[in-house]
Amino acid sequence: MNKMDFLLASNNKKKLGELQRILSPLGINIVTAKMLGKELEEVVEDGTTFEENARIKAVAGMKAFNMPTIADDSGLCVDYLDGAPGIFSARFSGEHGNDEKNNDLLLEKLESVPEEKRDAHYVCAVCCVFPDGKEITVRGECHGKIGFERDGNEGFGYDPLFIINGRTFGNYTSEEKDKISHRGKALRELAKELEKII
Description:
With 198 residues, this protein is of the alpha/beta class.
C-alpha cells in the first residue's frame, strides 16, 4: 500500500505519535513542517469555537504546503467555571503552553469547590483540509472531574488533574488514553470519514 503524506499543523510530538498510531492503518503517513525541513508559520487563532480554530490552522498549513493538512484544537471545559478555560486552555495563565502555571491557576480557581461540583470535559475538534477544497471536521469529548492535586506524569496539559474512571490521565499510558480520550475519539471519527474518500 502506498503511503500518503498528510501534514500535521503542529510541532507537538505527542500529537504526532497519536495521529500516526490511529491513521497509519489507512496508509496515511503523518509529517510535520520540521520533518519537511521547513517552519510552520504561527497563525492567529481568533475563532470562537474549537472547530473554527482547528480549521484556521488546517487551512493555513494546507495553503503553505499544498498538501492534505490536519489540525486540532482542544481544551478543557470546567462546568463550575462556565466552560472555562475552553478555547483558551493552552494560555489560561497568560503564558502559552505553560502547563504548570495553567494547572496552578485551575487549582486556585477551584479551591474549596467540593468534588460534586468539579465536573469537566475535554473537547477535541479536528479539521482536515485538502488542496482540492474537501474538508472534514469532527469532534470528540471525554467527561470526568478535576482532582484536588496533581497525580501522574503521563500526558500533558491538564492531564495530571483530570480524573476519569478513578484515576487521572496523568496515570494512563498513551495507548490506554487513546481508547477513551477526546482526541482519540475525534481521530477515530476522522479515520472513519477519511476511509470514505481515500
